[in-house]
Structure formats: C-alpha cells, structure tokens
Request: fold
Amino acid sequence: MNDNLASQLDPPVAELETKLSALAERVKGTDMELSPESQSQILIYLSTLTNYNQKVNLVGNCDPHHLIDRHTLDGLTLVSRIRKHVTAAKSSSSRLRYLDIGTGGGLPGMIVALACPELAVTLLDATAKKCNFLEMIVAELNHSERIEVINGRAEELARDDKFRERYRFVTARAVGTLKVTIELAIPFLKPGGLFLAQKTSSRIEAESAESKDLLTNIGAEIGKIESLEQFEELKEALIVPVKKLHVTPNKYPREWKQIVPSK
Reply:
C-alpha cells in the first residue's frame, strides 16, 4: 500500500479490506478474478474514496457493504466481459481503449481500470470536483500514463477526432435511459466496439423498445442480454451489450437539449 495514502486511512478500511478479500476469494478462478496487486490498489482507491467523500460528496453511499457488494462486484461483472475480448486481441501491440462516461467518483470506471491493467482508460465526468479526486488517486497509484481523467461532457467530446471512434469499450452507468446512453456512447466506439450498458430487469423491455429507431439510425444493435441473478446482490441487474456496426453518422451525438428534450 502506498505510504502516503495509508497514513490517511480511517477505521472503515478494515471492514473494506475484509469484504474485498471475501469478494476476491469468491470470484477466484473466474473471468472476474483479481490479481493481488489489483486487489491492493482497489482497496486503496475505495478507502481513499470513503475518506474523501466525508469532505466532498462523490458518491451517495460509502458504506463498506455497499461499496464492495454493490459497486465493486458490479464493476467486476464488466471486467469478465471485457477480458474475453482483451484475450482475443492479445496479438495487438497497443492497449485496447476503454471509456467510462459519467464516471462520478470512479464507479465502475476505476474498478475496471484497476482490475484490467492491460486497458488504456479514460474517465469522463462533467463535475470538476469529481475529476479532481480521480486525478489525485490516479497519480497516487502511479497510473497517470494509462488512466486519463477528463472534465467534460460526452456529447461535446465525441465530436473531437482524438476521441471519436477511438474506443473498444464504453460504459455509462446511471447517466440516463438506454436510448440516451446509446447516443452518447456509440460515437466513441470503433466499428465492432461494445457499449456495455448496465440496466435493470424492470426497465429493459420499455427502454429497448424506445431505443429501436435510434439503434437503426446510429448503426448499432443489442446483443444477448445477460442477467446477473446468480449474484444475490445484483439480482435485478442486467448487462446489455450494444455493438457498433459501422461508422456513426455525423449528426450524432446531438446537443443535450435534443437528446433529452425538456418536458
């Protein structure tokens, strides 16, 4: 553990460590498995997040149970999907790129980043105080060359050639409906890339129907939806893979007021 960070940690770190160790043991031998280094760095990140959150509101609930059994496990379910594609692309000399839109305090983006050191990661959020925290923890963990933090809006950044159609994977948890996040995420993906949407079973039918026309227009399709009901903590959760089929038409993404019209 980094000495500078270790000196800042409060008692909740003990409970976090116990719960994270239990989760790491639980996923051992699966595509969600954590290396000892990844486990250690995730603990530092979550502990620092807990302490920082006492001064600056980054996440709504920093209870150790919620951080491990909800957020960390949730992030690792994405890791298992991403790793299958990373393994298939191992012949490539460059890192596959992953973007987390609306990353907030880094959930799930930092969990994915720390569990998958083979990825080049961009964490994007419109709130400066959240980006300031992420820049601090990325620097402390010595990942500044691999993990970049950007304070900005997805619908604007997606029009920049440095980011448009440059990513293999995108996530955007708790940013909006499936239709909204598809319009924000797909322009960042290379053709063949995946937007891994995280949804709930109660809403997926309505949100999928609402997204039908946009999917056709933007050049994407929904793949096989995966239930996470094997995990009691995530029994309502789904992973909805949206594959990009071809280059995104220039009109997307539109301005925010067009994506989410005021009522």
